[in-house]
């Protein structure tokens, strides 16, 4: 009786601890295995059991989930140790399975909403609860046929796998590539091993996977129902552009590597129609290949060349605008098909000659015409380029007369010109002052004597000219009388008596008396600047 009471007490204690633990797990909603309290009595292998609850992401129980305990120690398979199924409360209990069988290499697996769950199961864990995650892990990438220049493979199944220490790989979830070969796999993360034992698998036998890659090519021999191949031109080293039609199946474009592929085909004979693009129609003609069956071996198709109907293209290395030196022009011709036979040119309407180097000398606008012929006899349309040479400085033509009386209205216009590239800059300096062109001077604006004129000019290509001229202003007795009259009219002499006195002395060429009277009245009844001009005129008259 005492022994029975002890057993009942021990059982009650265990059940109480188990109840408290389950209540804690339910409240915290843990999604990982949790061990029992360390103060609980140890269970023998025969007494070992595993229990827990499986719920969805909202905490609702999931009924009918089969939970398996398995081992994976150096095994090509995953032997099952025990199985249980969740009830209407999502609860399961696995009774009395042998924890001593390969300890440390046991796991738990089940399927929930189509996703596989694999978790390690330490020997100390007796309670495993799982809640479907709010956010799933995911990986994306592309499946391509790399041997044909990365052609995307549609409709191909790819999975995300984990591998245990034995090398056995298990898919967590899979996806099917779209028309562009793209896939996105969502999965529930596993706690097996390190990241080096997980990855995307494009091998239907799950014998290995690609780690860290987003563009994956299936292993050789794993694709079925495939018609693929390479297209090459018989005698032209150019990229092939166009379309390939698999009759009664569909059409695809030739990729950058001259390759094509069709997938998911029935095992029967097909016909291939290969059509060039508008541009490539000059290189090959459409062909049809019959009795084509799906195979892993690519077809090597040599495209028959189209006749060369396109003429060569010739260019020159001339530059626009004017040049101040002789020019050498190089002609370059290309022909993508048969090749260039001959290039011809004509300079300034001379007879056409063979060659691709043209020397052009001398001023003027030269006309260079050229064309080429290829080895198939196609002649290019005539091309024309203008080559402009100006090695001559601008010229300057002065006015007809550069000598005037002081009483003249002086109009100056210098013809500064460059008949080729044209004058871009010119300057006229009179007695160290820049003047306009043309320019005019009113009466008495210039003193008598010689005035220096300096002219500079340059054209569009840098040819420049510098030239000097002399503008001569003179006076005599008769014109001196006009100078006095102009001064009196302008109020530069403000006394009529003085004006008459000056005029009388000038009339009789009394230059000494006239000079003394002007000097005496300067700044008084005669404007001082005007007086200086009169004195200079008297000096000029008396010395010439």
Automatic annotation (TrEMBL):
Cited Gene3D superfamilies: 3.30.1920.20, Immunoglobulins
Membrane-traversing stretches: 12-34
Matching SUPFAM superfamilies: Carboxypeptidase regulatory domain-like (SSF49464)
InterPro entries: CarboxyPept-like_regulatory, Ig-like_fold, Ig-like_OmpL47-like
UniProt key word Chloroplast: no
NCBIfam families per the UniProt record, alphabetical: barrel_OmpL47
Name of protein: Carboxypeptidase regulatory-like domain-containing protein
